[in-house]
Amino acid sequence: MPEPTEEEIVRTALQEMLGDVATTRPSESAAELRARPGRRRVRPPDTKLVVALAAALILAVALFTAGALHRSSRQPTPVHRIGGDAFSMRPLLCFAARYQGSATDGTTAQVLPGCSSASSLTAAAIGIDISGSSGAGYSSNLAGIPADDSFAAFPSTPASLVLPTSTVLLNGTAGSGPDRYVLGPAGLTGGDVASASARQVDGQWSVYLVLTPEGATRWDFLASQQFHALIGVVLNDRVVSAPITQPTQSSFTSFDGRLEISGSFSHAQATAAASAIVGSK
Amino acid sequence: MDRRDEVAFDAFYSASWGRLFSQAYVLTGDRETAQDLTQEALLRAWRRWDRITGYEDPEGWTRRVLHNLCIESWRRSRTRSAHRAVEAPTTPDIPVHHHQLAQAMRDLPGEQARALLLHDGLGMTVRETADELAVPEGTVRSWLSRSRKVVAARITQSEQSEQPPVRRS
Fold first, then answer.
1. Cβ B84–A72 below 8 Å, yes or no?
2. Poorest-confidence range of A71-75, A89-93, A264-268, B9-13?
3. Range B95-169 has CATH code 1.10.10.10
4. Which fold has domain B1-91?
5. Packed helices B58-80 and B126-133: angle between N→C axes, nearest 10 degrees
6. CB contact under 8 A, A13 and B18
7. Contact B88/A260, CB-based, under 8 Å?
8. Nearest chain A Cα to B67, which residue?
9. I need a labelling partner for A41 at 20 to 30 A (CA). Which of A3, A219, B6, B117 fits?
10. Quick check: helix, strand or coil at residue A276?
């Protein structure tokens, strides 16, 4: 039998996929669609103009979110040490200003002040909204929440004082912007992780963790407290990622001991983070 | 509003919905997104129905809007991926081969994905495809041969190995 040509392969695959779902029924009737609020003929029927405007809008939104969300979406630094790393996951309380003092970071332990109410990253302040249309997942006010300036007087917590029970002030990774992070006591530590690996879902690399039974209970407790809020992923004295908990869900559901930190990891970053977590205690 | 418009639109809606949805599904690889974008394109068609109904091909107009919406949604989801999220691992509720084809389409430049869908998926001629995309026929031919190579390699490669191919970044 002759090998199928590229055209035949692609044609068959496309037509099969189109055919497989062609009998899907709409979830909304034509009458319901017509009854949606909004005026008819609000824009000129010039698709090029509409597309150009939409593209400009998307670009503006992309630039805005890329800048503003920078501080919440950290690129993890590849970790070369295989053992001896300290891993924890902690509630992220607020973003903090860069250190303005003269003392070397972390020469002394300091009692940190609380986050100001304007800067507090509570679920209410973040205001996750999942009602948006077109499958965009969710939107939030995260970009509008300021960093707390009062931390400018406090050096970051040194690695030796990043204890599970303490509140800590930590840097992000290289290139993650000027802000720092204030995080509460650890809700999960390296001993709670049974395995960690890099995984690809929907074309995006993520870090996939399987927890011990005790870890699963601790994680559900932390994650339910931080539902629709942020959790800092801490390796040694750095915040490598600050994900939002279940941002596309309307209510908290148990993780059953498995969790996936997804986002804009490259394969190498996800693998490095996974190996550092697995090598930590 | 004219009752005849409503009847005509409803007939158009039921006749074209499945075809439009399946195209959005190929371009997005996600049922829910495909549903939303199909509804959005049809809503836009309804809002200027008196103009479109005079065109030769109302479905063609709606399809162009829909394809553009789908390709815009790729850019949005790339932007969105700057957010990190921690969630329970999900298994896509769509078959693996659908996922892989949609993924391969999404990695193409938007215009090339549209050309491939129109020509190889919907069986339009090179001439019709060129008209719809407002580019010369030669451009369509070169897009088709380039994008087929990429997509065919991706889907045959993934048949051989369980692991989905690494996304170019």
1. yes
2. A71-75
3. yes
4. Rna Polymerase Sigma Factor; Chain: A (1.10.1740)
5. 60
6. no
7. yes
8. A51
9. B117
10. helix
In the numeric block, which tokens belong to residue A127? 């205001």
pTM of this prediction exceeds 0.80: no
- E strand segments, A42-161: 87-96
Whether B161 contacts chain A with CB within 8 A: no
The DSSP output letter for A226 is T
Helix or strand (DSSP H, E) at A263: strand A258-265
Q: Where are the domains of chain A?
A: 81-278
What was the ipTM of the complex prediction?
A: 0.86
Tell me the chain A residues in contact with residue B80 when contact means C-beta distances shorter than 8 Å. 136-137
Inter-chain residue contact A261 with B82, CB threshold 8 Å: no
Tokens of A5: 């040509």
The residue among A63 and B89 whose pLDDT is bigger is: B89
Secondary structure of chain B as H, E, C letters: CCHHHHHHHHHHHHHHHHHHHHHHHHHHCCHHHHHHHHHHHHHHHHHCHHHHCCCCCHHHHHHHHHHHHHHHHHHHHHHHCCCCEEECCCCCCCCHHHHHHHHHHHCCCHHHHHHHHHHHHCCCCHHHHHHHHCCCHHHHHHHHHHHHHHHHHHHHHHHHCCCCCCCCC
A207-249 tens-digit pLDDT: 888 899 999 999 999 999 999 999 998 988 888 888 889 888 8
Nearest to B102 by CA among A202, A262, A5: A202
Q: Where are the domains of chain B?
A: 1-91, 95-169
**Which residues are within 8 A (CB) of A245 and not within 5 positions of it... i.e. 6 or more apart?**
A223, A226, A227, A228, A229, A230, A231, A252, B85, B86, B87
